[in-house]
C-alpha cells in the first residue's frame, strides 16, 4: 500500500483509478468554478498562532455534533453517486465513518439505498433529503429514513434547481454510465473499478429506482430528477417536513445571515454554512468567508457547521476555532473512496485527524472545547466590506 501523508495523495490515486466522468462529477464547480476554487484558497488567508511551552499531554479531538458524540468534529457529507466512485461506495464510506466514530450522511441521490446502508452498519447514520414535487415520494422517503433509525435529517436547501457543471454535460453523466465509444475507451483503463462494479450490490439510484413509478433506467431518471426537484420549497414546507420527521433537523446550504435567522425561526437543530462545494451559485462567497457573519447573527442560539472547502485537519481547526461546532467533508472522503475503497476513507479520516491533532497542539491547545479565535490570525477585511 502506498504511503498516504495527505488528502492530495489520495486524490492522485483516485484520479488514476476512477472513470473520468465520475472524477469530473466530483471535481467540478458550476460555471467558472470561482466559488469552488475560493472555498479552498480562502482558508489559506487565515493563519495560525504558534504557541510554545504548553503541556501537550492528554490531548483529544473528541467533541459533539447535534448532541451526538464524535471522535472529531468532522462528518461525512452527503455526496450523490458515491456508489459510482467505488462499488458499494455508500456502504464502504458509512462503515469507515462508523469505525472512526464520525457521522455518515447518506444522500437522497445515493446508489446504495437507505435500507442497504442500514443493514451494512450498526450505528445510526444521517439522511440527506432533497425535496421533490412528488410529496408522497418525499413522505415515503422520510418514513424509510425513520424506519432505518437515521439519527438526523439533513435537508438541502440550495438545490431546487441544478447549477450547471460544464463537464457533466459534456461527459453525458449517468449511473450506470452510458456506453459511448469514449466512455468505453476510458473504462478500459479502469479495470480495478470495473471488477469491483461487477460485484456491486447496486448500480443505479437505490432510493429512487423501484420507489417511483415508471423509473427503471438512467435515462428516465435523468429526466425525472430535472423535473422533480421542488422549485416551490419554502420555509413553511421545511416546517412541515420537520414536523413529520420529528427528530433532529440540520439545514444545509445556508450562506447568508438572513437565511440563518429563518433557519433559527423554523426550529432547526443546526445549520450547515455551505455553497454546495461551489457546485450551485458560482460567484457566491466561500463558506469560510461567510461563516463569521452567520456566527455573529445566530451563533449563540443554534449550532453552526461548515462544509465546502475542507481538505485538511488544519481547515477543520480554522473553521472550529472560528466558531463552527462541526465540519463536513465531501470530496476529501470521495478521493479516499475512489482510491482504495473503505480503507481509503479510513485513510482520509486518519490524515485529517492527525493534522487536526498536531496543529491544535502546536497552537497550544489540547481539546476541541479550548479552541477559539485567539489561535487564529484573520485578516481585517476577511469577510469583505460590501456596499449596502
Ligand atoms: C448534487 O448534490 C450535486 O451537487 O451534484
Could you walk me through the main structural features you see in this protein, from its secondary elements to its overall organization?
The chain is α/β, with parallel strands linked by helices and 388 residues long. The chain contains 16 helices and twelve strands. It has helices spanning 7-17, 20-26, 34-41, 82-85, 89-100, 114-120, 135-147, 166-171, 181-187, 191-198, 218-228, 235-245, 257-265, 287-298, 313-322, 331-362; strands at residues 47-48, 63-65, 68-70, 74-76, 105-106, 126-129, 152-156, 249-254, 270-273, 303-306, 326-329, 376-377. The strands form three sheets. An eight-stranded parallel sheet has the order 4-11-10-9-8-7-6-5. A two-stranded antiparallel sheet has the order 1-12. A two-stranded antiparallel ribbon has the order 2-3. Helix 5 (89-100) packs parallel to helix 16, helix 13 packs across helix 14 and helix 15 (313-322) crosses helix 16. Bound molecules: glyoxylic acid.
* Count of individual domains: 1
CATH class: Alpha Beta
Unreliable stretches (pLDDT < 50, length at least 5) are none
CATH 4th-level superfamily? Aldolase class I
As for the CATH topology, it is: TIM Barrel
Strand order of the largest sheet: 4-11-10-9-8-7-6-5
Distance between the termini: 54 Å
The helical percent reads 40-55%
The count of strands amounts to 12
CA radius of gyration is 20 Å
User: Based on CA inertia axes, which overall geometry fits?
Assistant: globular
Strand content: 5-15%
Number of helices: 16
Q: Write down the oligomeric state.
A: single chain
Which ions and ligands are bound to the chains?
glyoxylic acid
Largest sheet: 8 strands, parallel
Backbone structural class: alpha/beta
Order of helices and strands: HHHEEEEHHEHEHEHHHHHEHEHEHEHE
Report the mean per-residue pLDDT as an integer.
95
**CATH architecture label name:** Alpha-Beta Barrel
